Amino acid sequence: MMNRWKARVRLLGMASLSIFCAAFLLTMGPADAKATQITTPGAPECNGSLNGVGITSVGSSSPGDAISIPEHSDINVKMHSSSPDGWLRVQLAVLGFRYTVVNQTAKGTDLNSSVPVDKYAKYGVGLYQVVARVTAQNDPSAPACQGIMLVKIAGNPMSTPAGETAAAGVAIGLISLAAAGAGALAEGGSSKGLRKLGFCFFMTLPAILLTGGAMAGVGSPPPAPPVGPQQRVKWRPRFSFLGIVGGMLAGMSGLILLQQYSILYPTRTVGGVVLIGGLVFGVALPSLLRIFAVRRINRRQDS
Prior knowledge:
Mean pLDDT: 76
Distance between the termini: 30 Å
Structural class: alpha+beta
Largest sheet: 6 strands, mixed
Radius of gyration: 30 Å
Helix content: 40-55%
Number of domains: 2
Order of helices and strands: HEEEEEEEEHEEHHHH
Shape: elongated
Number of helices: 6
């Protein structure tokens, strides 16, 4: 009894951690960038381009608007600011999280920078957001004008650590889900129902042994003890550790593969939805398959 409650507490902790991670993706860090140009009050006016394409001419989240960047090349960012001494910060963003690749000042109103693809995207390819941010001084909290564009870094995802790891994650996640489903089918309903069946088998074992002994010539067979009606097994949801972990792992790894193959740019919101969806699927799959096991046990008891 105590072990069963410990298992439930562990699974509840796993589910709570998963929901916390999803909430973290949805609420923490910079907001998902949806606008191509944002100017806060008091910031210097600015405009610019990325590899010759104007910031305001394309969107920042649709894969169809992504600027193609060849392998082993540079991302050239040019910004023009109304402030004579501006500060330029260039960041790469994925899943709503940003990391800085350029942080520099410029004398005058033109700010130019080149971001080597091989240096900052050597672990993966696919879709990334480039955020160019201009402030009037070296102060990240100062009012800023920023431009956001989507880039598509060319390359084979299966030749990068990110692509290989994501593919392995999908495979491991699916295998874990299959194992959780197989466990639900073989488990035969609730553990309480299985214990009752085992108890009934244990009680009838002496009768089986005595019957076998009588058939060998040791006395006459005694009458079998009456067996009362057995309680039907009730279906309950199955919370499987393998199912929960496998669902979340397969979902997040699949999302990374979509990003690596330039099919979908994963915003923070999408990441949170996928994480929660993987958790729900990891509980739903073994719980639904458990229905067949419960039906099989109840049919066996009724016959």
